[in-house]
Amino acid sequence: MARTKRKAVVGAKRVYMTRRKAMERLQLTLKDFRRLCILKGVYPVEPKKLKTGMTRGKTYYLRDDIRFLARDPVIWKFWEYKTFLKKMTKATAKKNELTLQTLRDNAPTYKMDHIVKERYPTFNDALKDLDDALCMCFLYANFSKVKGVPVEIVDLSRRLTLEFMHYVIESQSLQKVFISIKGYYYQAEIMGQTITWVVPHQFVLQAQPEVDMRVMRSFTEFYITLLGFVNYKLYSSINMYYPPRLSLKKETDKDMIVGEDKQHALYEYIGSLNRSLPRSKTDEIPVENKPDEFDEEEAEESDDENGDEPKAKKRKTVSYHKMVKEQNIFKNLKFFLNREVPRESLTFVIRSFGGQVSWDKTSFVGATFSEDDPSITHQIVDREVIPNKYMNRYYIQPQWVYDSVNARTLLPVENYFHDVILPPHLSPFVENTEGGYVPSDVSYQQNLAFGERKVDEEENEEDESEPESEEEAVEHYEKDLKMKVKAGKEEKVDKKRKEELEKAEEKRMAVMMIPKRRKRLYDKIMYGKRRNIRNTEKLKEKREKYEASQGKQNFKGKKAIRKKRQD
Amino acid sequence: MVASKKPKFAKSRRKGWKKVNIDEIDTFYEDVRLKERVGQPLDEPAFKIDKEAEIEPVLNGVKKGKVLKKLKQTKDLAKNIKAYKSLVPSSRVPPVVVFKNPAQPEKKVKPKTYGKSIKKKKEKWTDLKVGDIWSGTPTKAERKTRLKLKSVLPALELPHPGTSINPAIEDHQDLIKKAAEVELKKLKKDEKIQRLLHGGVTKKTQSQMQKEWLEEMSAGLPVANEDDQEKDDDEIVAEDPDLANPKKVIRAEDRKSKSKRRREMLAKMREKAIREEKEKKKKENKIYQLKRIKKEIAAGEEKHKKNMEIHQKKFEEKLCKPARLGPHKYEDPDIPVSLPGELADRLRLVKTEGDLFEDRLKSLQKRNIIEPRKLILKTQKKNVKYTEKRDCRDYENDLLNK
């Protein structure tokens, strides 16, 4: 018989492939196919144009992608698993216990290390995709152990996320925190990449019927492997040992923790956040992992040259010392956490900004100092009535910690005492553009944040003016003597003002020198800015009018409104 | 000439034998025998003991390198097996002579394990044996990932400031407004569906309904009025194309003559020539229209450029929008909002909203990583009709009940 010639695949069919066809080709069930796609990072596509023989309601994949999937050795394991399941069903039907046991012992397993390397050829690629991995792992880490959620995934993600938090603490890379009604949003800067993740509130996570947990699980499986490798690299970058020993007990006791005590193990994990991990060599951190050093003067000069650029960019060039100072705002402060506050989050935040934390040692493991320690500066509470107060410490609500971190200074504690109505918790992810309208609450908090600095500056000025006052005293004395010859009065030169004037002059000159074709663009920009300012002024005026009409309420007027509503 | 011939003898006779000188050998053997007799030592030993070579007993069927297993002694066997115990001397009197093996280093023999062989544990992904996989610089082939940009959307959407546990009043109002807009849209859509479902139906009177019914039932039946029928027949004829235009029959007198055909052809050719002339002139004239053409080209290019820009914009928009990846469309999740009354004064009392698992799933769908799906509830069981078997039926009671 003559060999039949295979029909060539042409046109759109050559590019795309339906999911059904792909499954047939790979000999996988839908479940396995989905999992393989997730692990390998192969996503469905929307065909550019629907050609004949293609239907709209179908899921299409690129033919090349499917070919790529077929090449991975993981697929063999998937096939093996398929036959393994068949054997298992057969054995269970026959009630053949011995076969079942041997089958179970030899169940096919797979590893995903090579896929991680393949999908993320460089460490930077992995860091870019870390947001997803962290969110998913933190979700699983906070999952209670219920039916259908594999225990090992929960345990592994709990361990890995904690390791990651340890890294963030040790490297002091946390930047922003925000508590929303969904959960805690954190943002850290790791090796030049901004990484954001969300951690759910405690005790609220539940499996939803609308969410296919099998899909989520496949994602988490891959992300756990990824996070393992990333953690290793991060740890080695700051000379820390990996894997760290997170359990506070000795390794020999670890096996004792089973069943009911698992909850206890979780507490222990949080407790471990309170210790710093050992490093191999303390001082020899590679240069690329240290924060960049900038000269302040240089930064200023460059600012002058590009005077038209928005101020937001100016703010980003921070001097090294300033940055170090800002990362250590809680240094030399001792915090004691009451039972009712979120321990994990607070410990993580306070420790990443250089503070010391402890809690009641009878309730949870890992306490470093007791409540009656006189050196405690702040006690974080979340209740109105406190029976036994210590005199030498502030009793504040947890929000103070988060707001201070976002403002990068210690905010005045009076507004956060345990029995007052709190100022709003603002999102640090909103960036106000220059000249834009800033809501009153935000401007209030900004003023608070910079208030302390202003005080410092004034003090410094006073110190400088001391010798001058001496001279003045001499003058007065001379006046008293009624001498005829008057001493020449020293002209007071306001250095700041002079500098400002000079700068303004320079800028004016620079503007004059702009060539004509660029001048138009410059004028446009300036016009836009002025318009922005005008609008802001309008809004401010409106606000003032509104406040005047409302009668003079204090700045917390809205709080009063809210309280009224609640009543 | 006579050749001298050797005398021939039969070889069976002694005379016919070959004569060889064996004196030398005889003397040697004589010498040897003499020595044997007399008992004089030999000059050199016939063989030598090789003391330098390793002693390796080679047994039949056993390979050279294999170390022989030490045979088990009764003493050892008696430890576990009862039958061997009787073989062990139980006398308390020590033996007179104790035979000792020449000193040999005692070899430790590993106890043989019976039953299940210990296998090497399979490596699972959960073992998480990690190392530095990004140590070297990746090769060109490695760097070529299949990761393509599917969407420019961020993995984690930053939260709206109004979702704070203790939001500023402006932010909170803004969020509520957003959520309300979404809800209103949904309501509007729902209303429209309801209106289409129920609003389009108008009430009819009994008489109207009867009339309609009559019309419906009598559809297709021959109508009583004859005039109408005739009209209908005409219409049918007119409508049918075959009936209306029967094939034309060309009679002999109507046929075109040869000369007529020729004339027609010539006329056609003339027309064609005129047309071509005109075209030629037009083309030649175009040189004077260069300016206009240039303008046209410029306009076309401008248009093309604009189209490209639109295309680029569309492409960028598409990157931000979820693609259509399956039978279901992507739908945004509900915006989590805490109403003004629900805002708590303290962190401890905060009422949480939204589900992060759903959020994650929606985010993946939005970024075209997985296709949107809908929850398919388990199908209800079919209505099963139960019948009593004839054998079990209680006829008497049934009858009584009736």
Automatic annotation (TrEMBL), chain A:
All copies of domain BRCT, residue ranges: 325-418
Location relative to the cell: Nucleus, Nucleolus; Nucleus, Nucleoplasm
Compositional bias (Basic and acidic residues): 280-292, 474-506, 534-547
Coiled-coil positions: none
InterPro entries: BRCT_dom (IPR001357), BRCT_dom_sf (IPR036420), PES (IPR010613)
One GO MF term attached to the UniProt entry: ribonucleoprotein complex binding
GO biological process: maturation of 5.8S rRNA from tricistronic rRNA transcript (SSU-rRNA, 5.8S rRNA, LSU-rRNA); maturation of LSU-rRNA from tricistronic rRNA transcript (SSU-rRNA, 5.8S rRNA, LSU-rRNA)
Keyword set, alphabetical order: Nucleus, Ribosome biogenesis, rRNA processing
Statement: the UniProt record of this protein carries the keyword Aminoacyl-tRNA synthetase: no
Gene Ontology, cellular component aspect: nucleoplasm; PeBoW complex; preribosome, large subunit precursor
Compositionally biased region (Acidic residues): 293-307, 457-473
Basic residues bias (residue ranges): 555-567
Pfam families the UniProt entry points to: BRCT_2, Pescadillo_N
Residue ranges, annotated region (Disordered): 280-316, 452-506, 532-567
Family: Belongs to the pescadillo family.
The protein's role, per its UniProt record: Required for maturation of ribosomal RNAs and formation of the large ribosomal subunit.
Protein name: Pescadillo homolog
Origin species: Tetranychus urticae
TrEMBL record, chain B:
InterPro entries attached to this UniProt entry: Nop53/GLTSCR2
Residue numbers spanned by region Disordered: 218-264
A biological process term (GO) from this entry: rRNA processing
Cell compartment(s), UniProt: Nucleus, Nucleolus; Nucleus, Nucleoplasm
A Pfam family recorded for this sequence: Nop53
Subcellular location, principal: nucleus
GO cellular component: nucleolus; nucleoplasm
Compositionally biased tracts (Acidic residues): 225-242
Keywords, sorted A to Z: Nucleus, Ribosome biogenesis
Sample GO molecular function, one term: 5S rRNA binding
Family that this chain belongs to: Belongs to the NOP53 family.
Function: May play a role in ribosome biogenesis.
Protein name: Ribosome biogenesis protein NOP53
Gene: 107366773
